[in-house]
Design goal:
The chain is α/β, with parallel strands linked by helices. The protein has helices spanning 23-27, 34-45, 64-74, 88-101, 112-116, 119-123, 135-145, 196-201, 222-225, 234-246, 264-276, 294-302, 317-322, 329-339, 359-375, 392-397, 411-416, 435-449, 458-464, 468-471, 474-496, and strands at 7-12, 49-54, 78-82, 106-110, 128-130, 157-160, 166-168, 204-206, 209-210, 230-231, 252-255, 282-287, 305-313, 345-352, 379-384. The strands form three sheets. It has a seven-stranded mixed β-sheet with strand order 2-1-3-4-5-6-7. Helix 15 links the parallel strand 14 and strand 15. Helix 10 (234-246) packs parallel to helix 11, helix 11 packs parallel to helix 12 (294-302) and helix 15 (359-375) packs parallel to helix 18. It is globular and about 75 Å long. The mean pLDDT is 93.
């Protein structure tokens, strides 16, 4: 293949006709794929034709047949897919159907899954796996399409050689200064992303940094972006915020960095720049507990920050140690004291379902949740652990619990478990937890849904506030859950009559 001006097509393959839950269909909210934006912008600047299609976009969805028809119409020279563990199987199935009808291009897998398991996409029909960051890789792949670069000279890819042997080229050196990444050309995306309907509901993602120095044993973010914290310059970030706000009308963003506030001074400069340039965005970020100074809180509030997600994950000492979370409990507790007076909404991620989980360990987190809800305007986001390959936790337990090995390739399993939301994962019970533990985790999820005392209104206020000391205790929450589900059953029976 040799094309001077190749056509590159980036796709999110169809999931809707698999009966899979779609976040953007449920919430009527969808944001552009940042990876496709960066890579597409580079390809476009090099004279290539670029098309980006998200088959699951609620305002312009595609079925499998519709997307294949579109591809046959476009006749691209390159098809790139973002592959994630929880939808890899459906991508492989789509590719098998597509390649039966269209072979005249190279198929490239990128994203987190090919970065950690690069051979797997090749065994399911892809020609090349791109590992880790791909901004330079895409330039060289375009050189390959033009006949000017050989695959053996492109770092961070895995591919078949002429003898069908799998070749792993060396990893590319990580770029320290992220300003080399171009400003995304959002004109490459479907204009409906910037329609009033979508703009009003959507928090658009922005990367201000890459890399996380924490090596939590359940997470493999560092497998893609590494452990070195690297940043874009403050000026570079502000230019992008100004662009998406003033040209595209974006009103809400989320900094999707693993650790946006790691450098408080830099974060303060970003906040000041947003104020000085009149960039009126509501925005949020992720943070480690205890990482935000009083000065930064003040500047975040003034510049439009309206939500913070804290990655606490757990408060049981044994679990904190085994997942390599090093924030001490006193610092976690102080986070609520510091955040509550700012008026910024905040949510704490709490994770359950670890292989060593006991009633006692779950109870410790329930007590923590109820205490914070009674004292502060605290919200919680509960999730059940989902074992990710190549993480320490996965590797430590896969031999003892072989069900987790390659479970994402088991079609029967994936069809039976289409709901991989926080609560939906509970029935998976990867680690054969005792039913008493599962029951306790369900109570934890219920406790996360109870409004904090300071936010009680209407009937909730009338019923709960006078007795909040009881209802925001372990026994009170158990009783509340029993009453709630009994009421739901009675209501359902009455509706049938």
């Amino acid at each position: 293949m040799k094309k001077e001006n190749p056509h590159l097509l980036f796709i999110n393959y169809p999931l809707l006709d698999k009966g899979l839950a779609s976040h953007n269909l449920v919430y009527k909210s969808a944001s552009p794929n940042l990876a496709f934006g960066y890579l597409g912008t580079i390809a476009h600047s090099l004279g290539c034709k670029v098309t980006i299609i998200d088959a699951n976009f609620y305002l312009r969805p595609y079925t499998t047949d519709q997307l294949i028809d579109k591809i046959l119409e476009l006749k691209p020279d390159f098809i790139g897919c973002s592959v994630f563990m929880d939808n890899a199987l459906w991508g492989y199935e789509f590719l098998k159907i597509l390649k039966e009808q269209y072979k005249d291009c190279i198929y490239v897998a990128g994203g987190p899954h090919p970065s950690i398991l690069p051979e797997e996409p090749l065994s399911h029909g892809f020609d090349i796996s791109c590992r880790k960051e791909s901004e330079i890789t895409i330039e060289e792949l375009i050189g390959f399409l033009r006949g000017k670069v050989e695959l053996k000279d492109i770092k961070s890819i895995t591919y078949f050689d002429e003898n069908k042997k799998i070749i792993h080229n060396p990893d590319r050196e990580i770029e320290k200064n992220l300003d080399f990444v171009p400003m995304i050309n959002y004109d490459l995306f479907d204009t409906l992303y910037f329609s009033k309907e979508n703009i009003e509901r959507t928090k658009f993602p922005v990367f201000a940094s890459r890399g996380c120095p924490n090596k939590c044993t359940y997470c493999n973010s560092y497998g893609v972006f590494g452990t070195r914290f690297r940043t874009r310059s403050v000026e570079n970030i502000l230019e992008e915020l100004e662009l998406i706000h003033k040209k595209y009308g974006v009103k809400k963003i989320n900094f999707v960095d693993d650790y946006f506030v790691l450098n408080n001074r830099r974060a303060i400069e970003i906040c000041k720049g947003m104020i000085e340039r009149d960039i009126k965005l509501s925005w949020g970020c992720y943070s480690k507990a205890g990482a935000i100074s009083p000065e930064l809180f003040d500047m975040m509030k003034k510049s439009g920050c309206d939500h913070i997600a804290y990655g606490v994950e757990n408060v049981y000492p044994k679990t904190l140690k085994l997942i390599n979370k090093k924030t001490p409990l006193d610092k976690i507790n102080a986070t609520y004291e510091d955040t509550n007076p700012t008026g910024i909404d905040y949510k704490t991620n709490i994770m359950a379902g670890f292989p060593w989980e006991t009633v006692q360990s779950v109870r410790a987190n329930i007590d923590f949740i109820l205490e914070k809800k009674r004292k502060y305007e605290a919200n919680f986001n509960p999730v059940v652990l989902y074992p990710v390959p190549k993480t320490k936790l996965y590797e430590d337990w896969v031999d003892k619990f072989p069900i987790i090995k390659d479970h994402w390739l088991n079609k029967e399993f994936m069809i039976d478990n289409t709901d991989l939301s926080g609560e939906g994962r509970m029935k998976l019970n990867f680690f054969n937890l005792d039913e008493k533990v599962i029951k306790e985790i369900r109570l934890l999820f219920f406790c996360c849904r109870i409004p904090s005392v300071n936010r009680l209104t209407g009937i909730n206020y009338i019923v709960l506030y006078p007795f909040n000391k009881f209802f925001y205790s372990y026994q009170g929450a158990k009783l509340l859950r029993t009453i709630y589900y009994s009421f739901k059953k009675i209501t359902a029976l009455l509706q049938k009559q």
